[in-house]
């Protein structure tokens, strides 16, 4: 499989130019994670005084919301990179350039990583002076959690991009809403055992459930559960392959239908 | 030598036959027009030549490569311009050219952009957002993007649509000079008969997905006994018989 770093760099440059030229966009990227973190910071403070469970681990809810934002931003970063091409009616030019679809995918994932760091890092740093909570105290497991949730977001972002390519810009709101269908099952703020028994297998089929359980194991017990990490990685590999496969299938379908030349607003 | 060879090409969208059995070749270094009314299959054919659209059946060979199976071998040697496909609006002209230069693997990109800016007179607006340019300026930017990689095959969809006569004339002259200078092959889809008469060595007249006639503009005008390509176009579009065929 041919892979050109120059073409991937060119696509990243295209999106970095947009970010560089628009400070409101940069601000917006950091704004929502920060607001979310502030709200959950106060919630965490309240529960720490009224709940023995939360009191055992200061900042558990802040850590959870920051990690959830990694997945949310990961998904949005991929989908927005693709939507930008559709909004600007640029897909036709890209499709007749030497850029391969898998290079386009890699550039979207790279931009997602950049957007997520820009979005989540300020909120994580802000939590230190505001709530005396540093997510960085999780240490090495934080890297593993971040990676797993990022990949889950990528898989969903690629699936959303595929749906937009197949059904047009009418489906663009899926980039913002689809991921929330996963939120109740991910066990972000509560253990998976809280869910009804019949729903728990569904939750365990999703990588974030393993990540958030793993995070609680680190925070409450100081134990890095490698079994949970391994299952999250395996499930992520499966979902990422499905997401990428769906996107490439939708791309091929667009070439059959002639949809690449005239997509846009 | 042929730059393009098309054999038994069909494209259907459900029950609609957009392209219905095309067979043609395009000589290297020539300028060829695909001419026809709306829905004749010009853009569909152009899209298949670009590999943007997969044919239902048939073969397309471009610059010696099978376009369906090996399009990425030949895409770096081709380029495309259409008024209906935009460049990112928020990026400046220079930024757009840098991005596309990277995608096409253009060597000495800075020099190439400077060269095109000079030739196409982009200087005064090269650092302005592409979305804030006039139609004429946008056309020149699209041209710069299409010529960045010095293509051996240039496909143009209505290259002078919505341009004033002065700018349109300038664009046509530029393409003619480019072809003479580089020996590139140009294929264009157009509704503009003046443009076709002036620029093209050969015309493929299309109707309902088929080639119904072909030849040089002069030969077609003579064969139909008309004074211009516009009259030939109307004869074909309205199913009039050729004058000699009715006599």
UniProtKB/TrEMBL annotation, chain A:
Keywords: Cell membrane, Membrane, Transmembrane, Transmembrane helix, Transport
Localization in the cell: Cell inner membrane; Membrane
UniProt GO MF annotations: ABC-type transporter activity
Membrane topology classification: Multi-pass membrane protein
Entry keyword annotation includes Hydrolase: no
Domain (ABC transmembrane type-2): residue spans on this chain: 24-250
The protein, known as: Transport permease protein
Species: Paramagnetospirillum caucaseum
From TrEMBL, chain B:
Pfam families: ABC_tran
Keyword field contains Transcription regulation: no
Molecular function per GO: ATP binding; ATP hydrolysis activity
Species for this entry: Paramagnetospirillum caucaseum
UniProt cross-references to InterPro entries, sorted A to Z: AAA+_ATPase, ABC_transporter-like_ATP-bd, ABC_transporter-like_CS, ABC_transporter_ATP-binding, P-loop_NTPase
Family, per entry: Belongs to the ABC transporter superfamily.
Annotated protein name in UniProt: ABC transporter, ATP-binding component
UniProt keyword annotations, A-Z: ATP-binding, Nodulation, Nucleotide-binding, Transport
Domain ABC transporter: 4-233
């Amino acid at each position: 499989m041919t892979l050109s770093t120059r073409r991937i760099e060119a696509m990243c440059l295209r999106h970095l130019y947009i970010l560089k030229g628009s400070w409101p966009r940069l601000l917006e990227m950091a704004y929502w994670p920060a607001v979310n973190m502030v709200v959950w910071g106060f919630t965490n403070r309240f529960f720490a005084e009224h709940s023995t469970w939360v009191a055992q681990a200061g900042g558990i809810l802040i850590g959870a919301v920051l990690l959830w934002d990694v997945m949310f931003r990961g998904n949005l970063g991929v989908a927005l990179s693709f939507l930008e091409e559709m909004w600007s009616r640029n897909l036709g030019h890209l499709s007749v350039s030497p850029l391969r679809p898998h290079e386009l995918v890699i550039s979207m994932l790279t931009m997602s990583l950049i957007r997520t760091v820009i979005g989540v890092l300020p909120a994580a740093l802000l939590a230190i002076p505001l709530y005396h909570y540093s997510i960085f105290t999780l240490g090495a497991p934080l890297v593993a959690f971040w990676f797993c949730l990022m990949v889950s977001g990528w898989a969903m972002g690629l699936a959303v991009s595929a749906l937009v390519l197949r059904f047009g810009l009418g489906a663009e709101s899926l980039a913002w809403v689809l991921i929330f269908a996963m939120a109740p099952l991910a066990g972000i703020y509560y253990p998976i055992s809280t869910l009804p028994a019949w729903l728990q297998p569904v939750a365990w089929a999703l990588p974030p459930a393993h990540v958030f359980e793993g995070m609680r194991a680190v925070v409450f017990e100081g134990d890095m559960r490698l079994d949970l990490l391994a299952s999250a990685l395996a499930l992520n590999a499966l979902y990422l392959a499905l997401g990428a496969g769906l996107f490439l299938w939708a791309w091929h379908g667009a070439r059959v239908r002639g949809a690449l030349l005239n997509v846009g607003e | 030598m042929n730059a393009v060879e098309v054999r038994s090409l069909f494209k259907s969208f459900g029950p609609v036959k957009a392209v219905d059995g095309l067979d043609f070749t395009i000589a290297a270094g020539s300028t060829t027009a695909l001419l026809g009314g709306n829905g004749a299959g010009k853009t569909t054919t152009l899209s298949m030549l670009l590999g943007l659209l997969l044919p239902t059946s048939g073969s397309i060979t471009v610059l010696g490569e099978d376009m369906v199976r090996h399009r990425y071998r030949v895409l770096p040697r081709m380029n495309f311009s259409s008024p209906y496909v935009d460049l990112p609006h928020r990026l400046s002209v220079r930024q757009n050219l840098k991005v596309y230069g990277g995608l096409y693997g253009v060597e000495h990109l800075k020099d190439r952009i400077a060269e095109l800016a000079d030739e196409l007179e982009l200087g005064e607006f090269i650092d302005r957002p592409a979305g804030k340019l006039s139609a004429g300026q946008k056309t020149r930017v699209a041209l710069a993007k299409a010529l960045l990689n010095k293509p051996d095959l240039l496909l143009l969809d209505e290259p002078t649509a919505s341009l004033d006569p002065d700018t349109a004339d300038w664009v046509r002259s530029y393409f003619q000079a480019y072809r003479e200078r580089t020996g590139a092959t140009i294929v264009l889809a157009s509704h503009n008969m003046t443009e076709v008469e002036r620029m093209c060595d050969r015309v493929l007249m299309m109707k309902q997905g088929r080639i119904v006639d072909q030849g040089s503009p002069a030969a077609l005008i003579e064969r139909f006994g008309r004074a211009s390509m516009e009259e030939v176009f109307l004869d074909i579009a309205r199913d009039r018989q050729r004058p000699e065929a009715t006599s």
